Amino acid sequence: MKLNFYTKGIGLTMMVGCFLFFLFQSCKSSAPTSATLTAPYVDGLEEGYPSRVYSNLPKTLYYRAIEMDMPQSLREFRGVWIATVANIDWPSSPNDPYAKQKEDFIKLLDYYQSLNFNAVIVQIRTAGDAFYPSRYAPWSKYLTGKQGKRPDTLEDPLSWMILESKRRGFEFHAWLNPYRATMNMEISELSPEHDVLNYPQWMVKYDNKYFYNPGLPEVKSHLLKIIEEVVKNYNIDAIHFDDYFYPYQVSGQVFDDEDAYRRYAKQGQSKADWRRENVDDLVFAISQLIQSEKPWVQFGISPFGVWRNISQDPRGSNTQTAQTNYDHLYADVLKWTENKWLDYLIPQLYWSTDFEAASYRELLNWWSRNHNNTTIYIGNGAYKIRDNADPAWNDPMELINQLSLSNMTPHVYGNTFFSARSMFQKNQDVAQLIKNYHYEFPVLSPIPHRQTIPPPSIVDPILILHGEGYAFQFREVVKPDYRYALIYTAPTLNDLQRRAEETNFQKIYLDDNDRFVVPILSFEGKPYIALSFIDRFGVETKPLVYKIEGKLLTRTE
């Protein structure tokens, strides 16, 4: 979906009537004051604003609505993964004071906002733990230094992270790792609340870690409760899984789920098919759960970049990877997209453009052909920049060229970078190149291929003085269905229509305090203004367009 601007003419008489009505409602106690200007124009203003506004254009309103068509705004997913496991991206240290951790998170957000990114994918469950108060998992040691230890604050860290992200215009995707239970075998480091200690029968030891056994119905039920807790309690935009389902296979080791296979497999069903069915069942159940609880919350998965090699399946990609989603991780990604269980997919294409065994170019085209009407974004391996045996990554233009290919490829709607620190603490020159070549202007994130509910109508606002500029004031509180207000300001009507360089764009998060008066944050003397709203599904209302006709004078001028 893209933006469509429209305007609605407003008669002079109705406008004057509305303004007078608001004046008497909000300023009944204000005594009239004398003025030397002719025909003072009275505006309804909330407490703390000037009580009178005058137009220096006698008998003329200081702004008017304009009927015009607007081009649709661009939409592109520009995401970054913020990994918390092993403190890869955040927090910098689990032993930092909570205030320092907050400061570091805001620095990450501000940095990627300055690069015109529009989504963060934040890891809130790494290995049977939680970055939020949970009934089903202990606090993460990567947040507090010791698993099960509460952070030194009364606030909910996840609620805070979501709010700060949305205030900067980011979608917040809650990233959980479902099946990984620990990162090592050190039982003594676990909280007494951890599932490894409470439900050892659910666990499989493999590759020096504990994993939840996907073949157990009790595990599936438990994981659904974890997802339900997050969906119900937090204002997230998406639930997100990465590529870890059954673990990557290690030579000489066996994932011992034989007992569960004998108990629960269908007659004649191979273990490989049974394992894939276990993962399918979880993905389907989570999709259904989210749709029943909050249908506007998306469900997305970021699988390993290769479904199957062409040597294994004629439908596979022309690649030669040692492991694949289907054969080794038991993740039948194509089945999920064919059945419309996901809202988006972010295949991890962490190879260079023409890498022989698995080229970015080949896999980009393969996922484009096999999208199955599921929204596709591409995962890019920023962590490899200047830090990989493949010499292609020494070229600072490698990622920029990959984005150029993505932009030219059908059915691909954006990119996500792993991980945040790789272009924050280093490689900032490459991040700046991405902005210069591809992310020069902010854009909206896409609406996934899904059914949406039309947003409710908006009552036309009035324009009032606010600080050094203006704000939109509404006759009634803006409904909670809306997440953001979008405001464009431009010096000319032509600039506004073309979204030229001189046009400013603001995406303002509507929390509980911003649903009656919405400020125009960067007016800068640009008289043409367009206003619209984004609802929970990402659908935009038809924008209203205004022109400010003259300079406003207040009683103090």
From TrEMBL:
Biological classification of the source: Bacteria, Pseudomonadati, Bacteroidota, Cytophagia, Cytophagales
Keyword Transmembrane set for record: no
InterPro entries: Divisome_Glycosyl_Hydrolase, GH, GHL10
All residue ranges annotated as the Glycosyl hydrolase-like domain in the record: 76-394
Name this polypeptide is given: Glycosyl hydrolase-like 10 domain-containing protein
Keywords, alphabetical: Signal
Organism name: Cecembia lonarensis (strain CCUG 58316 / KCTC 22772 / LW9)
Listed SUPFAM superfamilies: (Trans)glycosidases
PROSITE patterns: PROKAR_LIPOPROTEIN (PS51257)
Pfam families the UniProt entry points to: GHL10
Region forming the signal peptide: none
Highest taxon listed in the record's lineage: Bacteria
Record Gene3D superfamilies: Glycosidases
